[in-house]
TrEMBL record:
Its cofactor is Mn(2+); Fe(2+); Zn(2+). It comes from Candidatus Enterocloster excrementigallinarum. It comes from the Bacteria. Belongs to the Fur family. One of its GO terms (biological process) is negative regulation of DNA-templated transcription. Fe cation binds at H114. This is Transcriptional repressor. Zn(2+) binds at C82, C85, C122, C125. GO terms for molecular function: DNA-binding transcription factor activity; transcription cis-regulatory region binding; zinc ion binding. Binds 1 Mn(2+) or Fe(2+) ion per subunit. Binds 1 zinc ion per subunit.
Amino acid sequence: MKTLKYSRQRESIKACLMNRHDHPTADALYASIREEYPNISLGTVYRNLNLLVETGEIQRLTCGDGADHYDGVAVPHYHFMCRQCRQVFDVPMEILDSLNRTAQVHAPGIVDSHSILFFGKCNQCLEKENLEKNIEKGIDKSA
């Protein structure tokens, strides 16, 4: 595993990510970090995120929405992405090690890990959708 020279900016990026649970993109992290380091460049944020991923200190999530998301929790766990608002959530369930063994039977090499990303609509988007449908029908439950 790669060891890195200390960097205040990198530590700030990592601390910012650890204090968030929304799995932000590099752009969102950049906007947050600029409050503390107004002269930091987006390139510096990307470089440091890549270094933190390489050292295993954070996770990069490629969710198919065009932008990588980052997770300060480096231990294996599953995720859920809302197809509507594009938010990424942790899924607090047990890691299925048996899935590695099942995949191993079919894999063209050695399976040592897996990651799972579930897709659907989050509760917030479902509630918003239901509220909009009720308003269209003339039913307003918020009153």
